[in-house]
Design brief:
- By secondary structure, the protein is α+β, with helices and mostly antiparallel strands.
- The protein has a single domain, classed as Nuclear Transport Factor 2, Chain: A (Roll), CATH 3.10.450.50.
- Helix content is 32%, strand content 46%.
- It is built from 3 helices and 6 strands.
- It has helices at residues 3-20, 24-28, 49-67, and strands at residues 31-39, 42-46, 71-82, 86-96, 102-115, 119-127.
- The radius of gyration is 14 Å and the shape is globular.
Length: 130
């Protein structure tokens, strides 16, 4: 595997780890800006890390309270395409309750890019997660 793919997988792992830790600031730091998210029939564009951090705080609270979410795990992370500074990943994650029951399984595509100032970050996501 190339260093670009290794970096993209590591970035995706950091993205999930910070979400599981309910670390909105750390989670937002895994993204490149502007960041594009296509989910729930909506396109969201976060221009800044501050905007994303605030939205992530709201989202983290919502899924914990409304869905009884405890944590998420990767089902798979697969390479679609790779270049020197951009990698496309086919990922799928499952959200779980504290008792281990499944809330949902969500396939997605992540576009991970090497930024000039912050290293590898997720520039865009298209998922079926609410």
């Amino acid at each position: 595997m190339s260093s670009a793919v290794d970096a993209a997988f590591a970035t995706a792992d950091e993205f999930l780890a910070t979400f599981n830790a309910l670390d909105a600031e750390g989670h937002a730091a895994t993204l490149a800006y502007p960041h594009v998210r296509l989910a729930s029939g909506t396109v969201r564009i976060w221009e800044t890390i501050e905007e994303a951090t605030e939205q992530m705080r709201v989202n983290m609270s919502r899924i914990r309270e409304a869905l009884g979410w405890d944590h998420s795990e990767w089902d798979h992370k697969r390479l679609i395409h790779e270049g020197d500074r951009k990698v496309h990943l086919d990922v799928q994650f499952t959200r779980y309750r504290p008792d281990g029951s499944v809330i949902g399984v969500y396939p997605a595509v992540y576009v991970v890019v090497e930024t000039p100032d912050r290293g590898w970050r997720i520039q865009a996501r298209s998922s079926y997660a609410p």
